């Protein structure tokens, strides 16, 4: 193991080409939900925009196939990417990209052991698959939605964290299960190391326990909540923990001491974390459409970078009501400009008079393929009066209701002006 102090010294003394600089990766059209690094050191990113970016330097290859936000990522030792999302689908991105199967709820976590893939969902299911994509089995129900899964080193043991605060240990060799720890609040994230398990919970609890007994090793809880992301770099003995208040806490797993407590976001959460292959860089994502990369050894020198103030969170008093309704209800998924966009939904440019499901090159749900709806004052009003899940059952649009008729009228007035053909002339 290369100790953390050696990594810090090497950065300052320059024993390699100095790639230790702050960097941003731009291209996604929505918040960053998950990150993973391949064996060769390439970063994969998952976003609310339904896509995965696989980065060579600062240039992404886009992997599109999910029908909703991509929320879970894992990469095996051959560099094959597995992903899961709000569309309940588990996908593999190997020589042939395909869907392996579906849960009945959002996929929250994917874990990989040689020959076996585990996927977990808010519906409480944990499924095992071969690395070729064949279904092996569903594990016994853990009593609640599952937020995270992780394999032990030899692949025999699988750990699962639930929304009810139970940490389960599945012995896949003996086909048994037992609770390893009980936390008072839901456990969101989970890391398994050499003889230990670290977890982060809704109440901000950050604890480390023995992998076999559940006995306590360390309590690293700070007065921030919830814990939303964790990453581990075994070779350098580093554990990173991200929370809902925008901090990244760095922990030395040899001493179980906090080495840094860095404010990464001016406001908003740190939803995703990953270490570079050498452990010298920490990648992070949050509400911004951008991935941020900081040199670990220099974290204390940086001001918060993740803005967390997406346009739909701007001061409500700074814009007219119609624009405010758009920013709050629509802007995370839809752009107003013509042409393709990496946002989760199609552009709204020239939407009035357009048939639903008619934007070229956008992959619509089957519900909208061949739709007879024409977008105008009445149909847009009905969409937000009833909510997309009622007005267009089966569409990919998330539930959005604007209860007040005056607010819907103001939104329609704003959209007429902002999406008109004349706006780009």
Largest sheet strand order: 1-28-27-26
The helix count comes to 5
- Principal-axis shape: globular
Q: What fraction of residues sit in β-strands?
A: 35-45%
* CA-atom Rg in angstroms: 22 Å
The residue ranges in which pLDDT falls below 50 over 5 or more consecutive positions are 1-19
Report the sheet with the most strands, covering strand number, pairing sense and barrel closure. Answer: 4 strands, antiparallel
User: What's the overall average pLDDT, rounded?
Assistant: 90
SSE diagram, text form:
Elements: H1 4-13, E1 23-26, E2 32-37, E3 43-47, E4 51-56, E5 59-64, E6 70-75, E7 81-85, E8 89-93, E9 97-102, E10 107-113, E11 116-121, E12 126-130, E13 135-138, E14 146-151, E15 157-162, E16 166-171, E17 176-182, E18 187-192, E19 196-201, E20 206-210, E21 216-219, E22 227-233, E23 238-243, E24 247-252, E25 257-263, E26 270-275, E27 281-286, E28 290-295, H2 321-329, H3 377-386, H4 388-391, H5 405-418
Antiparallel strand pairs: 1-28, 2-3, 3-4, 4-5, 6-7, 7-8, 8-9, 10-11, 11-12, 12-13, 14-15, 15-16, 16-17, 18-19, 19-20, 20-21, 22-23, 23-24, 24-25, 26-27, 27-28
Helix pairs in contact: 2-5, 3-5
Please describe what this structure looks like.
The protein is mostly beta strands and 425 residues long. The protein has two domains: 4-301, YVTN repeat-like/Quinoprotein amine dehydrogenase (Methylamine Dehydrogenase, Chain H, 7 Propeller), CATH 2.130.10.10; 311-424, Cytochrome c-like domain (Cytochrome Bc1 Complex, Chain D, domain 2, Orthogonal Bundle), CATH 1.10.760. It has helices at 4-13, 321-329, 377-386, 388-391, 405-418; strands spanning 23-26, 32-37, 43-47, 51-56, 59-64, 70-75, 81-85, 89-93, 97-102, 107-113, 116-121, 126-130, 135-138, 146-151, 157-162, 166-171, 176-182, 187-192, 196-201, 206-210, 216-219, 227-233, 238-243, 247-252, 257-263, 270-275, 281-286, 290-295. The strands form seven sheets. It has a four-stranded antiparallel beta sheet, with no helix packed on it. The termini are far apart.
